[in-house]
Design goal:
The chain is of the alpha/beta class. It has 9 helices and 8 strands. The strands form 2 sheets. A 6-stranded mixed sheet has the order 2-1-3-8-6-7, with helices on both faces. Helix 6 packs across helix 7 and helix 8 packs across helix 9. The longest helix is centred in the N-terminal third of the chain and has 38 residues. The protein is elongated.
Length: 326
């Protein structure tokens, strides 16, 4: 009887030791992997990363896929460590803009004329507004509204709409002019003016933001897929706000026609404590769109931007064709 009891004790101790050993090994692996992994200098190719976002919706890659990429282009362009540029300074003569954007190749479709010169200018007055973090942080990738602008550009380009994204840092414009963060719209106004001067064909100006609302206010599931809700902001302190509001309402109706669940509607802002203009006095087709919120993932943002691109394509096509007819 004692022998049998001792045998059971040995088995129990063996199992316990095995569990403890496996726990120690697993913890040690995770601990040291995190330390050494964070020190790896991984450089990602911007085109490949955006291709994953836009065409694969982040569903078909692994860490090893990303680790095999070897271009510094992504980090330069999409983590706000952009190539060296001359940053704007208010009320001073500005040299020729360093922003170089290749003209998109016309596509063989009925809207190819929209793609001959850039029509859409995407910018971010608050460039560093971020989305929910994930393992990409270890690759020095910040999933921000700037990333969202590049994703939207890819979709618009695929649809035949010539689009450029502002690459200069708002933070640098603020610094060069001695302005604080509260003057971000003032800084982006300089970038707007510079973009229009260098690309006279630009007509539609879209400031992409993300909301800072509650976690329940921005995600939405549609047909088994997750999306980020969109909201439009119109500043009523703009003396010509009625025109901007009317165009925003058209855009919102087109979005609701795609799926009413995607729209959070239009919020109107004015008075003390808010900007109230949001550069919408710059042109009648100037929009401020809140794409999701801080709790949305980049996958959800990607899904919504694909829908937004379709809506913008329809809106721009109808607007351009309507103006031609008149």
């Amino acid at each position: 009887m004692k022998k049998r009891f001792k045998g059971r004790n040995k088995v129990g101790r063996f199992i316990l030791k095995t569990i403890i050993l496996l726990g120690v090994v697993g913890f040690s692996f995770a601990f040291f992997f995190k330390i050494f992994y964070a020190k790896i200098n991984l450089n990602l190719d911007n085109e490949i990363y955006l291709n994953y976002l836009v065409h694969d919706a982040l569903g078909n890659y692994s860490i090893t896929d990303l680790a095999s990429l070897n271009s510094t282009e992504f980090l330069l362009k999409y983590s706000l460590g952009l190539e060296k540029v001359d940053n704007l300074v208010a009320k001073e003569e500005v040299n020729e803009s360093p922003l170089e954007v290749e003209k998109e190749k016309p596509k063989d479709d009925e809207n190819s004329s929209l793609n001959q010169e850039p029509l859409v200018y995407l910018f971010n007055s608050h460039q560093t507004e971020g989305y929910k973090t994930n393992f990409l942080d270890n690759f020095n990738i910040n999933n921000t509204v700037l990333i969202g602008s590049y994703i939207l550009k890819e979709y618009l380009t695929d649809l035949g709409i010539g689009t450029i994204v502002e690459e200069q840092k708002v933070a640098d414009v603020l610094k060069n002019n001695g302005w604080k963060y509260g003057s971000s719209y003032r800084a982006s106004r300089l970038l707007l003016e510079d973009a229009k001067n260098n690309h006279p064909s630009l007509k539609y100006f879209i400031d992409i933001h993300r909301d800072a609302g509650q976690i329940s206010s921005t995600p939405v599931a549609i047909a088994g897929a997750k999306y980020a809700k969109l909201m439009f902001v119109v500043g009523l302190d703009n003396p010509n706000y009625a025109v901007n509001l009317a165009e925003t309402e058209k855009l919102n109706e087109l979005l609701k026609a795609e799926n009413v669940s995607l729209s959070r509607g239009i919020i109107k802002k004015q008075g003390k404590g808010v900007n109230g203009v949001y550069n919408q006095d710059f042109a009648p087709y100037t929009f401020l769109i809140e794409v999701g919120g801080e709790y949305n993932t980049i996958e959800e943002i990607n899904n919504s931007l694909k829908i937004l691109a379709k809506v913008l394509h329809k809106y721009i096509t109808e607007t351009e064709n309507g103006q031609k007819e008149t």
